[in-house]
Amino acid sequence: MSSVDGAVAVTTFRGAFWRLYASEARLVLGRRRNQALLVVLSGIPVLIGVAIYASRPTRPGEGPPFLGQISGNGLFLVFTALSVCTPLFLPLTVGVVSGDSIAGEAGLGTLRYLLTLPVTRTRLLVAKTLGALTFTLSAVLAVTLTGLVAGGLLFGWHDVTLLSGDTVGIGNGIGRAFLVAAYLVGALSGLVAIGVFVSTMTENAIAAMATTVGLAVLSFVLDSVPQLSAIHPYLLTHHWLGFGELLRQGVDSSALLRWTGLHLAYAAVFLSLAYARLGSKDVTS
Amino acid sequence: MTATEARTELHSATDLAVRTRGLTRRFGKQVAVDAVDLEVPRGAVYGFLGPNGSGKTTTIRMLLGLLSADSGEVELLGRPMPHGVPDVLPRVGALIEGPAFHPYLTGAANLRRLDACDRTADPRTSAERIATSLARVGLTAAADKKYRNYSLGMKQRLGLAAALLQPRELLVLDEPTNGLDPQGTREVRHLVRELAADGTTVLVSSHLLAEVEQVATHVGIMSGGALLRQGELHEVLSSEAAVVRVTTPDVALARAAMTGLGLDVQTVGEGLAADLGDVAAEAVASAVVASGARLRGLQVERPHLEELFVSLTGEGFDVLR
């Protein structure tokens, strides 16, 4: 009965999800704290570049080999900066934003107002995840782009000698830099999903952020214990630095795809958990 | 389903904006809401009263699908909840347990955020609706101030503005005058009357009884998780014992006449008073006059909501649990 009586059509507007996502992205990227994180990330390649520039060997052949490569070609600053950021700075920023996603709204009390608009819980979860992924992309691009610019200005761009010893043109080199960035975004998506899941468990955003970053650190720690080598290939962070594969002539794309598959599997599992958790959650905040 | 059942069902679905049956929710061992049968007719201004911790907010959260019920049913605007959330809530505006917004965004930006998240909101009219609802709560001048710099009253007003972003059939306002100065309280009262005049059903929870008494057409009184009384305001009040006061210089004659009606008469100041019970006030008047006493005044006093509230929920200042 009531379904007949209550079937008052609710008019929804085209592009409504796009509006929701855009609002979410604006919220994430417009927040001062998050902007500060991006600025810090952008500073890292600059810092490394300037340090190497100041201490560059006056004669070729001196100094550590990798750093010598940077001073010889600015493009290597990108790869070095991404390698430096991957174990700590990137998971830190990704953990902050994804851990904040739901718990931040719950802590402010705005979650109850979103849910009674209503934003259905599924739509909210998808929008929040995409918002955190957008930030992750921005974070990786911040390092990549400032690395490219700073490296070019300090050391110039030249043809790239790959790890395999082959030499490719600068266009090819820059293309590889963006492939590395894309691989890292995929790798970090697993952590984003963990962060969103943890975020559905609490109203305390700081706790959710700390837990998310803590889990990434734990994965790195387990990865460094040789006795646990059996589980290493399945750890969240084990293949994060696997982007080095993209710096060889014959790229082992099947390995890269396999690793990306693992990262996406992490994302799928934790997003499912988040969905189950948020869907049945009593909102008392 | 028989025809009669069908008719009853249809009747309830169309006439009641909010209807719960046996709504129950426990938190651990404690029963926060205990078999509540809430009935808010369409077009009513329903004053939802109860001391702190009596289960009002838990009930409201279940109405809006934020909390699940342990047992019982909820129907909002004729649709079962929480199943009907996507269809029903766009037609419901809510202020739940105080306003909540992003502190680092301005008032207007917060409303833009909410409007952008609402898939039933027309993006073309967004700016206009936001300006209108800010004006309606008197926040136009503070629209571009950060929310964190708002006073408590301004935050409350922004909460109301958010509830009014779209035309609503039902407004659920939990303590809407919290933190408002007397001027703001008057404005909210005025706003509620205005909305009700447009046909919006308003469910307003409050502990300000005088406030509710002035705007409500219906009341429900909760205590300890149970709904103790519910109905039209005047019916709920008249169900309570009225007191008749008789002013006369001929006290002895009048007393005899009133006692003759079976009243328990007491001398109060210059006159007499008695609990009216089932006796009609008119009968008291004619009996006193017939006795030859000179009747100077006769008053029937019904209890105010506050007295009824206190008599039902106890005078104690303690939070119940």
Your description of this structure?
The complex is a heterodimer of chains A (285) and B (321). In chain A, 69% of the residues lie in helices and 1% in strands. Chain A has 285 residues and is an all-alpha fold. Chain A has one domain. In chain A, helix 4 (65-72) packs across helix 5 and helix 9 (170-199) packs across helix 10. The longest helix of chain A is centred in the middle third of the chain and has 35 residues, at 121-155. Chain A is globular. Residues 1-7 of chain A have low confidence and may be disordered. Chain B is of the alpha/beta class and 321 residues long. Chain B folds into two domains: 3-232, P-loop containing nucleotide triphosphate hydrolases (Rossmann fold, 3-Layer(aba) Sandwich); 241-301, Alpha-Beta Plaits (2-Layer Sandwich), CATH 3.30.70. Helix content of chain B is 36%, strand content 26%. Chain B contains twelve helices and 15 strands. In chain B, the strands form three sheets. In chain B, strands 7-8-9-4-10-11 form a six-stranded mixed sheet, sandwiched between helices. In chain B, strands 1, 2, 3, 5 and 6 form a five-stranded antiparallel sheet that branches. In chain B, helix 4 (107-117) packs across helix 5, helix 5 packs across helix 6 (152-163) and helix 10 crosses helix 11 (281-290). Chain B is elongated. The two termini of chain B are 43 Å apart. Chain A binds chain B through residues 1-3, 5-8, 10-13, 15-17, 19-20, 22-23, 27, 31-32, 108-110, 112-120, 123, 127, 280, 282-284, and chain B through 1, 6, 9-10, 13-14, 61, 64-68, 75, 77-80, 84-92, 94, 96-98, 100-104, 112-114, 116-123, 162.
